[in-house]
Hints:
Layout: E1 3-7, H1 12-21, E2 26-29, H2 35-38, H3 41-46, E3 51-54, H4 65-86, E4 91-96, H5 104-107, H6 127-143, E5 149-156, E6 158-160, H7 165-176, E7 179-180, E8 188-191, H8 192-203, E9 217-222, E10 224-225, H9 228-231, H10 235-239, E11 243-244, H11 247-256, H12 263-274
Parallel strand pairs: 1-2, 1-3, 3-4, 4-5, 5-9, 6-8, 7-11
Antiparallel strand pairs: 8-10
Helix pairs in contact: 4-6, 11-12
Amino acid sequence: xxxxxxxxxxxxxxxxxxxxxxxxxxxxxxxxxxxxxxxxxxxxxxxxxxxxxxxxxxxxxxxxxxxxxxxxxxxxxxxxxxxxxxxxxxxxxxxxxxxxxxxxxxxxxxxxxxxxxxxxxxxxxxxxxxxxxxxxxxxxxxxxxxxxxxxxxxxxxxxxxxxxxxxxxxxxxxxxxxxxxxxxxxxxxxxxxxxxxxxxxxxxxxxxxxxxxxxxxxxxxxxxxxxxxxxxxxxxxxxxxxxxxxxxxxxxxxxxxxxxxxxxxxxxxxxxxxxx
Length: 276
């Protein structure tokens, strides 16, 4: 059986990962060991660790954003680089990031952001997205030439479950919003089972066959586009009571909304709903 270090095992994604894979792999969780112990050279070597899966992340408490979303991934990277200096063993590192690092709420796009030090343009990052972006930047830079570490950066969208509180909040917004959104709108969402499917692809090494041997870091945007009528089946019954609005006018509303609470929350929900 393959040996995995799982970080963030007490969170929603970490718990789902463990439940889904505990019968097929030896999983060492940060519920049972201290983080420093799990990342130590002796632990990685003695337990023949083949994968490190980082699901640690703070999404609600801004005081912990940089500690959980940046400093911990940076510590993992430093431990992997140090381990690589002493041993020839290869390890696969899977890091859970976010499509928010591409600034979708500022550029109305989930296309990869190409950073260029010779060009400056504004970002509409909040602290969560900024902390995730900094972690991705550090991982790419510190592990770029490490041939002993195969790195996968997962960039999921909003993680949804069967009884997702986020979807309840969005549906309540749709009830109050006076305009009818296009039936072609397909927001990017990430179901837990879809995310687990991507984990399985890496753990079973079905993805690496198609990758360049010198491409040590791979970024995967992990989401599905699901039409509004499938996300919210009841929306079709209330949409007839709404005023039609085209894409151009919708974007005008989005750009006109201020970035102060609660308008900032309305703006982010509208952007999420308006991806076409």
